[in-house]
Amino acid sequence: MTSALRRAARAILATAPVLYLLVAPAQAKGPDSLSELSAQVSDAVVNISATTVDAKRSSRNDGPNLPPGAGPGAPFDDLFEEFFRRRGQGMPELPRQRRSSSLGSGFVIDPSGIVITNNHVIADANEVTVILNDGQKLKAEVLGKDQKVDVAVLKVKPEKPLKAVKFGDSDKAKVGDWVLAVGNPFGLGGSVTAGIVSARNRNIDSGPYDNYIQTDASINKGNSGGPLFNMDGEVIGINTAILSPSGGSVGIGFATPANTVEPVIVQLQAFGETRRGWLGVRIQNIDDAIAETLSLGATRGALVAGVDDKGPSKPAGLKVGDVIVKFDGKPIKESRDLPKLVAATPVGKDVELVVVRSGKEQTKIVKLGRLEDGEKVASKDGDDKEKSEGGGDGSSQSVLGLELSRLSDALRTRYQIKDTVKGGVVITAVDPRSEAAEKRLQPGEVLLEVNQEAVSDPADVLKKIKTLKGAGKKTALLIVANGQGDAHFVALPVE
Protein backbone atom coordinates (compact mmCIF):
# COMPACT_ATOMS: atom_id res chain seq x y z
CA MET A 1 0.00 0.00 0.00
CA THR A 2 1.40 3.38 -0.94
CA SER A 3 1.80 6.13 1.62
CA ALA A 4 -1.02 8.05 -0.06
CA LEU A 5 -3.40 5.09 0.36
CA ARG A 6 -2.37 4.67 4.01
CA ARG A 7 -3.09 8.32 4.70
CA ALA A 8 -6.52 8.00 3.02
CA ALA A 9 -7.39 4.88 5.08
CA ARG A 10 -6.42 6.60 8.35
CA ALA A 11 -8.60 9.57 7.40
CA ILE A 12 -11.63 7.30 6.80
CA LEU A 13 -11.12 5.44 10.10
CA ALA A 14 -10.75 8.67 11.98
CA THR A 15 -14.03 10.02 10.64
CA ALA A 16 -15.98 6.75 11.04
CA PRO A 17 -17.15 7.45 14.66
CA VAL A 18 -18.38 10.83 13.52
CA LEU A 19 -20.34 9.22 10.68
CA TYR A 20 -21.82 6.69 13.13
CA LEU A 21 -23.02 9.42 15.45
CA LEU A 22 -24.58 11.23 12.55
CA VAL A 23 -26.67 8.22 11.46
CA ALA A 24 -27.61 6.97 14.95
CA PRO A 25 -31.43 6.67 15.27
CA ALA A 26 -33.22 9.53 16.98
CA GLN A 27 -34.94 8.82 20.30
CA ALA A 28 -38.77 8.89 20.42
CA LYS A 29 -40.07 12.30 21.42
CA GLY A 30 -43.49 13.23 22.71
CA PRO A 31 -45.35 16.54 22.58
CA ASP A 32 -43.37 19.54 23.80
CA SER A 33 -45.96 20.15 26.51
CA LEU A 34 -49.33 18.80 27.62
CA SER A 35 -50.09 21.72 29.90
CA GLU A 36 -52.76 23.26 27.63
CA LEU A 37 -54.54 19.94 27.18
CA SER A 38 -54.35 19.24 30.90
CA ALA A 39 -55.82 22.65 31.75
CA GLN A 40 -58.54 22.13 29.14
CA VAL A 41 -59.86 18.84 30.58
CA SER A 42 -58.91 18.67 34.26
CA ASP A 43 -61.94 20.54 35.62
CA ALA A 44 -64.22 17.89 34.07
CA VAL A 45 -62.46 15.06 35.95
CA VAL A 46 -63.80 14.32 39.44
CA ASN A 47 -63.02 12.15 42.43
CA ILE A 48 -65.56 9.56 43.52
CA SER A 49 -66.04 8.63 47.18
CA ALA A 50 -68.20 5.54 47.70
CA THR A 51 -69.26 4.51 51.21
CA THR A 52 -70.89 1.24 52.16
CA VAL A 53 -72.72 1.15 55.51
CA ASP A 54 -73.37 -2.35 56.80
CA ALA A 55 -75.51 -2.53 59.94
CA LYS A 56 -74.55 -5.52 62.07
CA ARG A 57 -75.93 -6.78 65.35
CA SER A 58 -74.03 -8.61 68.01
CA SER A 59 -74.44 -12.38 68.16
CA ARG A 60 -75.00 -12.13 71.94
CA ASN A 61 -78.63 -12.42 72.87
CA ASP A 62 -78.22 -12.82 76.62
CA GLY A 63 -77.57 -9.18 77.49
CA PRO A 64 -80.25 -7.08 79.18
CA ASN A 65 -82.44 -4.72 77.20
CA LEU A 66 -81.37 -1.12 77.53
CA PRO A 67 -83.71 1.81 77.58
CA PRO A 68 -83.90 4.16 74.62
CA GLY A 69 -80.93 6.50 74.46
CA ALA A 70 -78.59 4.11 76.32
CA GLY A 71 -75.49 2.65 74.74
CA PRO A 72 -72.16 3.80 73.37
CA GLY A 73 -72.08 7.51 72.74
CA ALA A 74 -75.30 8.16 74.65
CA PRO A 75 -75.50 10.86 77.38
CA PHE A 76 -75.54 8.30 80.24
CA ASP A 77 -73.02 5.94 78.64
CA ASP A 78 -70.56 6.21 81.59
CA LEU A 79 -73.28 5.42 84.13
CA PHE A 80 -74.41 2.27 82.33
CA GLU A 81 -70.80 1.15 81.85
CA GLU A 82 -70.10 1.54 85.59
CA PHE A 83 -73.31 -0.36 86.41
CA PHE A 84 -72.30 -3.38 84.33
CA ARG A 85 -68.67 -3.21 85.53
CA ARG A 86 -69.74 -3.54 89.18
CA ARG A 87 -71.82 -6.58 88.32
CA GLY A 88 -68.82 -8.19 86.64
CA GLN A 89 -70.27 -7.76 83.20
CA GLY A 90 -69.06 -5.87 80.21
CA MET A 91 -71.28 -3.50 78.31
CA PRO A 92 -73.56 -5.58 76.08
CA GLU A 93 -72.76 -5.38 72.39
CA LEU A 94 -75.30 -3.25 70.60
CA PRO A 95 -76.27 -2.86 66.99
CA ARG A 96 -73.37 -1.19 65.27
CA GLN A 97 -72.57 0.01 61.79
CA ARG A 98 -69.54 -0.99 59.79
CA ARG A 99 -68.47 1.60 57.26
CA SER A 100 -66.13 0.94 54.36
CA SER A 101 -65.08 3.51 51.78
CA SER A 102 -63.44 3.40 48.39
CA LEU A 103 -61.99 6.13 46.23
CA GLY A 104 -61.99 6.32 42.47
CA SER A 105 -62.24 8.71 39.57
CA GLY A 106 -64.88 9.87 37.14
CA PHE A 107 -65.64 12.54 34.57
CA VAL A 108 -68.52 14.82 33.61
CA ILE A 109 -70.15 14.29 30.19
CA ASP A 110 -73.06 16.74 30.60
CA PRO A 111 -72.89 20.18 32.25
CA SER A 112 -76.21 19.46 33.99
CA GLY A 113 -74.41 16.91 36.19
CA ILE A 114 -74.06 13.52 34.43
CA VAL A 115 -70.91 11.77 35.68
CA ILE A 116 -69.34 8.53 34.43
CA THR A 117 -67.24 6.10 36.46
CA ASN A 118 -66.57 2.36 36.77
CA ASN A 119 -69.21 0.10 38.25
CA HIS A 120 -66.61 -1.46 40.56
CA VAL A 121 -65.81 1.96 42.05
CA ILE A 122 -69.30 2.35 43.50
CA ALA A 123 -70.23 -1.38 43.69
CA ASP A 124 -72.95 -1.73 46.36
CA ALA A 125 -72.26 1.62 48.00
CA ASN A 126 -75.03 3.23 50.04
CA GLU A 127 -73.59 6.70 49.61
CA VAL A 128 -71.75 8.13 46.61
CA THR A 129 -70.13 11.56 46.66
CA VAL A 130 -68.66 13.37 43.66
CA ILE A 131 -65.80 15.71 44.55
CA LEU A 132 -65.13 18.41 41.98
CA ASN A 133 -61.71 19.77 41.09
CA ASP A 134 -62.35 22.87 43.25
CA GLY A 135 -63.09 20.69 46.30
CA GLN A 136 -66.88 21.01 46.15
CA LYS A 137 -68.69 17.83 47.28
CA LEU A 138 -71.99 16.77 45.73
CA LYS A 139 -74.20 13.83 46.67
CA ALA A 140 -74.73 11.55 43.69
CA GLU A 141 -77.66 9.47 42.52
CA VAL A 142 -76.89 6.25 40.64
CA LEU A 143 -78.92 6.35 37.41
CA GLY A 144 -77.71 2.94 36.26
CA LYS A 145 -74.76 0.59 36.23
CA ASP A 146 -73.52 -2.34 34.21
CA GLN A 147 -71.14 -4.99 35.47
CA LYS A 148 -70.34 -6.49 32.06
CA VAL A 149 -68.49 -3.42 30.74
CA ASP A 150 -67.88 -2.04 34.24
CA VAL A 151 -69.56 1.35 33.89
CA ALA A 152 -71.89 3.42 36.07
CA VAL A 153 -73.82 6.62 35.36
CA LEU A 154 -74.25 9.12 38.20
CA LYS A 155 -76.33 12.26 38.53
CA VAL A 156 -75.47 15.29 40.68
CA LYS A 157 -77.24 18.62 41.11
CA PRO A 158 -74.67 21.43 40.83
CA GLU A 159 -75.46 25.08 41.53
CA LYS A 160 -74.09 26.03 38.11
CA PRO A 161 -73.25 24.11 34.90
CA LEU A 162 -70.19 21.90 35.18
CA LYS A 163 -67.24 21.63 32.86
CA ALA A 164 -67.86 18.60 30.61
CA VAL A 165 -65.89 16.54 28.11
CA LYS A 166 -67.01 14.55 25.08
CA PHE A 167 -66.37 11.04 23.85
CA GLY A 168 -64.20 10.56 20.78
CA ASP A 169 -64.02 7.75 18.23
CA SER A 170 -61.90 5.12 19.96
CA ASP A 171 -61.67 3.09 16.73
CA LYS A 172 -59.46 5.84 15.31
CA ALA A 173 -56.89 5.48 18.10
CA LYS A 174 -53.75 3.87 16.72
CA VAL A 175 -50.94 2.04 18.46
CA GLY A 176 -48.30 4.67 19.18
CA ASP A 177 -50.74 7.60 19.55
CA TRP A 178 -50.16 9.80 22.58
CA VAL A 179 -52.79 9.74 25.33
CA LEU A 180 -53.39 11.53 28.63
CA ALA A 181 -54.82 9.87 31.76
CA VAL A 182 -56.36 12.03 34.50
CA GLY A 183 -57.56 10.68 37.84
CA ASN A 184 -57.23 10.23 41.58
CA PRO A 185 -54.41 7.71 42.17
CA PHE A 186 -54.19 6.46 45.77
CA GLY A 187 -56.59 9.24 46.82
CA LEU A 188 -53.99 11.93 46.14
CA GLY A 189 -56.33 14.08 44.08
CA GLY A 190 -56.21 15.19 40.48
CA SER A 191 -53.12 13.77 38.75
CA VAL A 192 -52.12 13.76 35.10
CA THR A 193 -50.00 11.11 33.39
CA ALA A 194 -49.09 10.69 29.74
CA GLY A 195 -48.12 7.78 27.53
CA ILE A 196 -49.02 6.07 24.30
CA VAL A 197 -51.52 3.50 23.10
CA SER A 198 -49.51 0.32 23.56
CA ALA A 199 -52.02 -2.10 22.03
CA ARG A 200 -55.65 -2.37 21.01
CA ASN A 201 -58.39 -4.96 21.38
CA ARG A 202 -56.80 -6.60 24.43
CA ASN A 203 -58.64 -9.53 26.02
CA ILE A 204 -57.85 -9.90 29.74
CA ASP A 205 -60.71 -12.34 30.45
CA SER A 206 -62.55 -9.92 32.71
CA GLY A 207 -65.87 -10.09 30.89
CA PRO A 208 -67.70 -11.10 27.71
CA TYR A 209 -66.94 -7.88 25.84
CA ASP A 210 -63.22 -7.44 26.47
CA ASN A 211 -61.49 -5.27 23.85
CA TYR A 212 -59.39 -2.96 26.01
CA ILE A 213 -57.05 -0.20 24.94
CA GLN A 214 -53.68 -0.91 26.53
CA THR A 215 -51.57 2.08 27.53
CA ASP A 216 -48.30 2.76 29.31
CA ALA A 217 -49.63 6.00 30.84
CA SER A 218 -49.35 5.46 34.59
CA ILE A 219 -52.63 4.09 35.96
CA ASN A 220 -52.82 3.15 39.63
CA LYS A 221 -55.40 2.32 42.28
CA GLY A 222 -57.82 5.23 42.40
CA ASN A 223 -57.52 5.95 38.67
CA SER A 224 -60.40 3.54 38.01
CA GLY A 225 -63.28 5.30 36.30
CA GLY A 226 -61.14 8.18 35.09
CA PRO A 227 -60.85 9.23 31.44
CA LEU A 228 -58.17 8.46 28.88
CA PHE A 229 -57.89 11.41 26.49
CA ASN A 230 -56.52 11.72 22.98
CA MET A 231 -54.60 14.82 21.99
CA ASP A 232 -57.84 16.55 20.92
CA GLY A 233 -59.20 16.40 24.48
CA GLU A 234 -61.73 13.66 23.64
CA VAL A 235 -62.37 10.69 25.92
CA ILE A 236 -61.40 7.55 24.01
CA GLY A 237 -61.50 5.21 27.02
CA ILE A 238 -62.34 4.72 30.70
CA ASN A 239 -59.35 3.62 32.78
CA THR A 240 -60.48 0.34 34.30
CA ALA A 241 -57.71 -2.12 35.16
CA ILE A 242 -53.98 -2.58 35.55
CA LEU A 243 -51.68 -5.55 35.26
CA SER A 244 -49.33 -5.43 38.22
CA PRO A 245 -47.83 -7.92 40.69
CA SER A 246 -47.28 -5.14 43.21
CA GLY A 247 -50.50 -3.16 42.89
CA GLY A 248 -48.66 -0.16 41.44
CA SER A 249 -48.20 0.89 37.84
CA VAL A 250 -45.71 -1.14 35.82
CA GLY A 251 -46.66 0.47 32.54
CA ILE A 252 -49.53 -1.84 31.60
CA GLY A 253 -52.95 -0.30 32.04
CA PHE A 254 -56.28 -1.00 30.34
CA ALA A 255 -59.08 1.35 29.33
CA THR A 256 -62.55 0.36 28.10
CA PRO A 257 -62.94 1.91 24.62
CA ALA A 258 -65.40 4.78 24.25
CA ASN A 259 -67.14 3.03 21.36
CA THR A 260 -67.85 0.04 23.60
CA VAL A 261 -69.12 1.96 26.60
CA GLU A 262 -70.98 4.88 25.02
CA PRO A 263 -74.02 2.85 23.79
CA VAL A 264 -74.30 1.31 27.26
CA ILE A 265 -74.27 4.77 28.86
CA VAL A 266 -77.10 5.88 26.56
CA GLN A 267 -79.19 2.88 27.65
CA LEU A 268 -78.47 3.42 31.34
CA GLN A 269 -79.51 7.06 31.08
CA ALA A 270 -82.69 6.26 29.19
CA PHE A 271 -83.83 3.09 30.98
CA GLY A 272 -81.69 2.70 34.11
CA GLU A 273 -80.64 -0.71 32.75
CA THR A 274 -79.07 -2.31 29.70
CA ARG A 275 -81.01 -3.70 26.74
CA ARG A 276 -78.59 -5.85 24.78
CA GLY A 277 -79.28 -8.02 21.77
CA TRP A 278 -79.41 -11.80 22.28
CA LEU A 279 -78.93 -14.66 19.81
CA GLY A 280 -79.55 -17.52 22.20
CA VAL A 281 -76.54 -19.61 21.22
CA ARG A 282 -73.48 -20.82 23.11
CA ILE A 283 -70.28 -20.47 21.11
CA GLN A 284 -66.64 -21.49 21.31
CA ASN A 285 -63.35 -20.76 19.60
CA ILE A 286 -62.23 -22.59 16.48
CA ASP A 287 -58.72 -23.97 16.26
CA ASP A 288 -56.92 -25.25 13.15
CA ALA A 289 -57.99 -28.86 13.74
CA ILE A 290 -61.67 -27.95 14.06
CA ALA A 291 -61.48 -25.64 11.03
CA GLU A 292 -60.05 -28.46 8.94
CA THR A 293 -62.66 -30.95 10.14
CA LEU A 294 -65.52 -28.56 9.31
CA SER A 295 -64.04 -27.63 5.90
CA LEU A 296 -63.90 -23.94 6.74
CA GLY A 297 -60.91 -23.26 4.54
CA ALA A 298 -59.44 -21.00 7.26
CA THR A 299 -59.65 -20.60 11.02
CA ARG A 300 -62.52 -18.15 11.39
CA GLY A 301 -65.95 -17.62 12.84
CA ALA A 302 -67.76 -18.67 16.00
CA LEU A 303 -68.69 -22.34 16.43
CA VAL A 304 -72.21 -22.94 17.76
CA ALA A 305 -71.85 -25.39 20.65
CA GLY A 306 -75.42 -25.04 21.91
CA VAL A 307 -78.77 -23.53 20.89
CA ASP A 308 -81.14 -22.28 23.58
CA ASP A 309 -84.56 -23.91 23.16
CA LYS A 310 -86.23 -20.63 24.18
CA GLY A 311 -83.91 -18.33 22.26
CA PRO A 312 -84.36 -16.54 18.92
CA SER A 313 -81.87 -18.73 17.03
CA LYS A 314 -83.93 -21.89 17.48
CA PRO A 315 -86.87 -20.85 15.23
CA ALA A 316 -84.39 -19.33 12.76
CA GLY A 317 -82.95 -22.80 12.18
CA LEU A 318 -79.48 -22.54 13.70
CA LYS A 319 -77.97 -25.87 14.77
CA VAL A 320 -75.13 -27.13 16.90
CA GLY A 321 -72.08 -27.37 14.65
CA ASP A 322 -72.93 -24.29 12.56
CA VAL A 323 -70.11 -21.78 12.24
CA ILE A 324 -71.24 -18.14 12.22
CA VAL A 325 -68.89 -16.29 9.87
CA LYS A 326 -70.90 -13.08 9.37
CA PHE A 327 -73.28 -11.11 11.57
CA ASP A 328 -75.32 -8.26 10.09
CA GLY A 329 -72.81 -7.93 7.25
CA LYS A 330 -69.76 -7.87 9.54
CA PRO A 331 -67.19 -10.68 9.38
CA ILE A 332 -66.56 -12.78 12.50
CA LYS A 333 -62.82 -13.42 12.64
CA GLU A 334 -62.88 -15.12 16.04
CA SER A 335 -65.61 -16.15 18.45
CA ARG A 336 -65.22 -13.22 20.84
CA ASP A 337 -66.13 -10.80 18.03
CA LEU A 338 -69.71 -12.11 17.98
CA PRO A 339 -70.94 -11.24 21.54
CA LYS A 340 -69.77 -7.63 21.15
CA LEU A 341 -71.61 -7.19 17.86
CA VAL A 342 -74.79 -8.88 19.11
CA ALA A 343 -74.86 -6.85 22.34
CA ALA A 344 -74.55 -3.58 20.42
CA THR A 345 -77.43 -4.43 18.05
CA PRO A 346 -80.97 -3.21 18.91
CA VAL A 347 -83.36 -5.73 20.43
CA GLY A 348 -85.98 -6.88 17.93
CA LYS A 349 -83.90 -6.22 14.83
CA ASP A 350 -83.99 -8.81 12.03
CA VAL A 351 -80.34 -9.70 11.51
CA GLU A 352 -78.80 -11.67 8.65
CA LEU A 353 -76.39 -14.40 9.71
CA VAL A 354 -74.07 -16.28 7.37
CA VAL A 355 -73.23 -19.74 8.69
CA VAL A 356 -71.11 -22.58 7.36
CA ARG A 357 -72.87 -25.94 7.59
CA SER A 358 -71.40 -29.12 6.08
CA GLY A 359 -68.80 -27.01 4.28
CA LYS A 360 -71.34 -24.72 2.58
CA GLU A 361 -72.47 -21.19 3.45
CA GLN A 362 -76.12 -20.60 4.35
CA THR A 363 -77.99 -17.42 5.26
CA LYS A 364 -80.31 -17.25 8.26
CA ILE A 365 -82.49 -14.37 9.49
CA VAL A 366 -82.75 -14.01 13.26
CA LYS A 367 -84.94 -11.55 15.15
CA LEU A 368 -82.77 -10.62 18.12
CA GLY A 369 -84.15 -11.11 21.60
CA ARG A 370 -83.06 -9.29 24.72
CA LEU A 371 -80.08 -10.69 26.59
CA GLU A 372 -81.42 -9.74 30.01
CA ASP A 373 -84.62 -11.72 29.34
CA GLY A 374 -82.55 -14.71 28.25
CA GLU A 375 -80.52 -14.56 31.45
CA LYS A 376 -83.71 -14.59 33.54
CA VAL A 377 -84.96 -17.69 31.68
CA ALA A 378 -81.62 -19.43 32.16
CA SER A 379 -81.66 -18.62 35.87
CA LYS A 380 -85.17 -20.01 36.26
CA ASP A 381 -84.30 -23.19 34.36
CA GLY A 382 -81.26 -23.68 36.55
CA ASP A 383 -83.50 -23.85 39.62
CA ASP A 384 -85.65 -26.67 38.23
CA LYS A 385 -85.55 -29.90 40.18
CA GLU A 386 -83.35 -32.59 38.65
CA LYS A 387 -84.74 -35.97 37.67
CA SER A 388 -82.91 -39.22 37.02
CA GLU A 389 -83.46 -41.40 34.01
CA GLY A 390 -82.32 -44.82 33.00
CA GLY A 391 -79.48 -45.64 30.74
CA GLY A 392 -77.93 -48.91 29.64
CA ASP A 393 -75.90 -51.66 31.09
CA GLY A 394 -72.71 -49.76 31.85
CA SER A 395 -70.53 -51.75 29.36
CA SER A 396 -67.30 -49.87 28.58
CA GLN A 397 -64.79 -49.45 25.73
CA SER A 398 -61.51 -47.61 25.29
CA VAL A 399 -60.83 -45.31 22.34
CA LEU A 400 -58.87 -42.09 21.72
CA GLY A 401 -57.45 -42.26 25.24
CA LEU A 402 -60.96 -42.32 26.72
CA GLU A 403 -62.72 -44.98 28.76
CA LEU A 404 -66.38 -44.83 27.71
CA SER A 405 -69.53 -46.30 29.28
CA ARG A 406 -73.22 -46.16 28.46
CA LEU A 407 -75.18 -43.57 30.41
CA SER A 408 -76.84 -45.29 33.36
CA ASP A 409 -78.67 -44.22 36.52
CA ALA A 410 -75.61 -45.10 38.57
CA LEU A 411 -73.27 -43.01 36.40
CA ARG A 412 -75.76 -40.13 36.25
CA THR A 413 -75.83 -40.10 40.06
CA ARG A 414 -72.08 -40.56 40.49
CA TYR A 415 -71.16 -37.67 38.17
CA GLN A 416 -74.24 -35.50 38.92
CA ILE A 417 -75.33 -35.46 35.29
CA LYS A 418 -78.59 -33.55 34.85
CA ASP A 419 -81.58 -35.10 33.13
CA THR A 420 -81.32 -32.44 30.42
CA VAL A 421 -78.31 -34.36 29.07
CA LYS A 422 -79.97 -36.85 26.73
CA GLY A 423 -78.13 -39.84 25.29
CA GLY A 424 -74.41 -39.98 24.72
CA VAL A 425 -71.74 -42.03 26.47
CA VAL A 426 -70.01 -41.15 29.71
CA ILE A 427 -66.26 -40.61 29.97
CA THR A 428 -65.21 -42.62 33.03
CA ALA A 429 -61.43 -42.30 32.67
CA VAL A 430 -58.88 -40.34 30.62
CA ASP A 431 -55.37 -41.57 29.77
CA PRO A 432 -53.08 -38.84 31.19
CA ARG A 433 -50.63 -39.38 28.29
CA SER A 434 -53.27 -38.89 25.60
CA GLU A 435 -54.28 -35.99 23.42
CA ALA A 436 -57.65 -36.13 25.16
CA ALA A 437 -55.94 -35.26 28.45
CA GLU A 438 -54.16 -32.34 26.79
CA LYS A 439 -57.55 -31.10 25.57
CA ARG A 440 -58.71 -31.28 29.22
CA LEU A 441 -61.42 -33.88 28.80
CA GLN A 442 -62.47 -35.20 32.21
CA PRO A 443 -64.32 -38.15 33.74
CA GLY A 444 -68.00 -37.32 34.16
CA GLU A 445 -68.30 -35.51 30.85
CA VAL A 446 -70.62 -36.97 28.23
CA LEU A 447 -69.62 -37.63 24.62
CA LEU A 448 -72.69 -36.74 22.55
CA GLU A 449 -71.55 -36.80 18.90
CA VAL A 450 -68.67 -37.89 16.69
CA ASN A 451 -68.34 -35.85 13.48
CA GLN A 452 -71.84 -34.48 14.07
CA GLU A 453 -73.44 -37.92 14.37
CA ALA A 454 -75.06 -38.89 17.66
CA VAL A 455 -73.69 -41.78 19.74
CA SER A 456 -75.48 -43.69 22.48
CA ASP A 457 -73.15 -46.62 23.05
CA PRO A 458 -69.34 -47.00 23.26
CA ALA A 459 -69.58 -49.37 20.29
CA ASP A 460 -71.01 -46.48 18.22
CA VAL A 461 -67.90 -44.45 18.95
CA LEU A 462 -65.55 -47.30 17.98
CA LYS A 463 -67.43 -47.83 14.74
CA LYS A 464 -67.35 -44.16 13.76
CA ILE A 465 -63.64 -43.82 14.54
CA LYS A 466 -62.94 -46.91 12.45
CA THR A 467 -64.94 -45.40 9.57
CA LEU A 468 -62.97 -42.15 9.78
CA LYS A 469 -59.67 -44.00 9.67
CA GLY A 470 -60.85 -46.01 6.66
CA ALA A 471 -61.74 -42.78 4.87
CA GLY A 472 -58.25 -41.41 5.48
CA LYS A 473 -59.40 -38.77 7.96
CA LYS A 474 -56.87 -37.59 10.52
CA THR A 475 -59.19 -35.91 13.03
CA ALA A 476 -62.44 -36.72 14.81
CA LEU A 477 -64.68 -33.84 15.88
CA LEU A 478 -66.40 -34.62 19.19
CA ILE A 479 -69.22 -32.82 20.97
CA VAL A 480 -68.76 -33.18 24.71
CA ALA A 481 -71.08 -31.91 27.46
CA ASN A 482 -70.45 -31.40 31.15
CA GLY A 483 -72.88 -32.56 33.81
CA GLN A 484 -74.94 -29.38 33.48
CA GLY A 485 -75.41 -29.92 29.75
CA ASP A 486 -73.04 -27.22 28.51
CA ALA A 487 -71.47 -28.63 25.35
CA HIS A 488 -68.25 -27.84 23.49
CA PHE A 489 -66.36 -29.19 20.49
CA VAL A 490 -63.06 -31.04 20.78
CA ALA A 491 -60.94 -32.23 17.86
CA LEU A 492 -58.84 -35.37 18.52
CA PRO A 493 -56.46 -37.19 16.17
CA VAL A 494 -57.71 -40.65 15.20
CA GLU A 495 -54.26 -42.12 14.63
Radius of gyration, in angstroms, nearest whole number: 31 Å
The major β-sheet equals: 7 strands, antiparallel
**Helix/strand class:** alpha+beta
Give the termini separation: 70 Å
Largest sheet: spatial strand order = 5-4-1-2-3-7-6
What coarse outline follows from CA principal-axis ratios? elongated
Residue share in helix: 10-25%
The residue ranges in which pLDDT falls below 50 over 5 or more consecutive positions are 8-27, 57-84, 382-394
Mind explaining what this structure looks like?
This protein is an alpha+beta fold and 495 residues long. Helices cover 22% and strands 33% of the residues. The strands form five sheets. It has a seven-stranded antiparallel β-sheet with strand order 5-4-1-2-3-7-6. Strands 22, 23, 24, 25, 26, 27 and 28 form a seven-stranded antiparallel β-sheet that branches. The chain has a six-stranded antiparallel β-barrel with strand order 8-9-10-13-12-11. The radius of gyration is 31 Å and the shape is elongated.
Features:
7-stranded antiparallel sheet; 495 residues; elongated; 22% helix; alpha+beta
Q: What is the fold's blueprint, element by element?
A:
Layout (H helix, E strand, L loop, with lengths): L2 H21 L11 H7 L3 E12 L20 H10 L9 E15 L3 E4 L1 H4 L4 E5 L5 E3 L1 E6 L4 E5 L22 E6 L7 E12 L9 E4 L11 E3 L5 E8 L10 E5 H14 L5 E2 L2 E4 L3 H6 L8 E6 L5 H4 L6 E5 L2 E2 L5 H7 L6 E8 L2 E8 L1 E2 H12 L13 E4 L2 E5 L2 H6 L10 E6 L4 H4 L7 E5 L2 E2 L3 H13 L4 E7 L5 E7 L2
Antiparallel strand pairs: 1-2, 1-4, 2-3, 3-7, 4-5, 6-7, 8-9, 8-11, 9-10, 10-13, 11-12, 12-13, 14-21, 15-16, 16-17, 17-18, 17-19, 19-20, 22-23, 23-24, 24-25, 25-26, 25-27, 27-28
